[in-house]
Amino acid sequence: MARKKIAILGGGMAGLTTAYYLTKTPELRAQYEVTVHQMGWRLGGKAASGRDRQGRNLEHGLHVWFGYYDCAFRLLQEVYAAYTPPETSPFKTWTDAFKPQKHTGIGMLVDDRWTHLSVDWPENDGQPGDPKPIPPLGGALALLLGWLRDAILDRLPGWEPLLEEQDPEASDSLLFLAAARTAFGFDNAALAFAEAVVVQPRLSLPQAMKVLSLWLHALGGDLTGLGHAHLDAIVRLLRLIDAQYRAFHQGSNDPAVIMIGHLLNVFAATMAGAVADLIKPNLSFETIDDWDFSDWLIYHGADEVIARTSSLVRIIYDISFQYTDGDPARPTCAAGSGLGSVVRMLATYKGAMMYHVQGGFGDAVIAPLYAVLKDNGVKFEFFHKVTALERDGDRVGRVRMEVQAAVSAQPYRPEFEICGLTSWPTEPHWDQLVDGDRLRDAGVNFESHWCQEPPIGEVVLKADQDYDQVVLAIPLGGYKPMEGDPGICADLFTVESPLRRFAENVDITPTLAFQFWSDRTLPQLGWTTGKSATVSGPQPFDIWADMSQVLDVEPWPEGAGPKTLHYFCGSYPTRLYAAPPSDAGVPERAATELRVMVEAWLKTGAEAWFPLASRNGTFDWTALWDPSGATGSARLNNQFLRANIDPTECCVSCAAGQTRYRLYPLQSGFSNLVLTGEGTRHGLNATAVEAAVMSGMASARAISGSPRQIPGYDFLSRKPIPES
Known about the structure:
With about 725 residues, the chain is of the alpha+beta class. Helices cover about 35% and strands about 15% of the residues.
């Protein structure tokens, strides 16, 4: 029996995951012949990295893996189990490649000056990727309530004396709660307690927190199944605590006091909204996705200023770049997707809350995955740029691709070894290309949407002859109609279809990235709280991580290289991504804008993290590592700046009102076209490596029926998935 031919268009994480799960076992390899067609010379999509001519690792941005990434970590673990690394590789196992990151700094603007609040995340005994069930919403909220209690009672200074004060009536109320639960049942106790204590409160704030502690203990760790009266009483108690806290600490400029106040206010509104909109009616997260997250919080009682401006809330928008056209003044995030992400991130992680890759993403993830896929028989066609999917009735009849360059000796060998790792270059191996010297000297970028180098030929794949099914793994930006460019699916869009509605109604967001190397330690730069990953800092580079561990796998002279390495990223307010492919000047305009933004941010915004290098509108340019001896801002020439404006590099939005247009793999409207990628519908509905892997698993399942289980895939929808 002939194997089914699967053409995967695009070699990002979703496409590679699809290829992996279609060829994971000998039985699957006997059924499917898989070919990945990739524009340019490397794999990984937004997760691709490369080594420059100095051997340094350059990323599209900052990639943090959270401890709830069960699908991504499971894939990583399986790949490393099957992978034979170079003998001198420092990454022999997945735990060599990823290490826990325990500390987070949350940026805060207090009295017109930037500061930060340090958070150390507790570890647990789990391991990401373990197939443990995800707790229901009620269980997750109970866990977060416990964290809230600990944050206030154990972390906030100055409260200890108050804890010694005991109001006899309050103490009686505590005893009443415990006794009433035993004597009358939980819901009856809740009704009486709400009347006696919450509606007419006598409790001080610390005493109310003790009540909450006792209540949580009585709950047994889950709110699921509780009567409405009990849920309402919990919400009332949280509102009481919020009101008393604000009265007690009104006017404080202590960052910890301010942040915990915001946390209380936001969590009280979150609990109120979750109870009213999700738990009581037993509905899914997606049912509130027509609301913007901040608007939803305000509707359920959050202070409007806090909901609009607090760094605590901004985290939800920052980590997945939820700003229309990258504009910080236009935040939008679907409430259910935003809330679901928070619940997964904080209440379901295993081991550590987050993990940092120890080298380049391409070194640690893409190269091992590529090696395993080749061993599994997957074919790769590099320098194949898809130009059109053409309709034949209700299916894709032809796929047209430009051949971007001729390879002098097939097959093209994309990797090379450096520092014991298999890596990818930031440019093609010019010596493997026909006319490579000319292409290199001309600065041809085969990955650019605006590349003007004429193709050397065309490949046309035909249905039934060259493929049985097509997997569209190209990101949404690659086929979304733009200004003056109908996109590669123009022929498919001549008829009404779910795919067309998806492409027309879901937005994409451009981003930017900046890396700099320094010969100064963190304390010498002014950061004194240790290795960190920070969020909600001054925009546009509002996310920063100390990535100095990557220096260990860069070829620096012994004792003579930089001491620290820093990655920054954020959203990019621009519509350059929508410029037609004929506008060859777009990349240069973006590079010029980015340079101006970086210089301005280093003078003003960097003070939030590096006050010894950036202060009062000036920046000490000698903080940037530059062995050439350049002076002033010219030292930026030896750093790495990247504007992610190529449509395929933009992140897919999870804006309010857009979830309804997202599709599962078999919902394209074309019988032989399977969808995959972060823009599809899945258990996150946002930009993340986990989203891409989850979607790749789902597209493989849509074709082969395997894998049957995809942890977290229906977390937001709670509906049977069409292809499962």
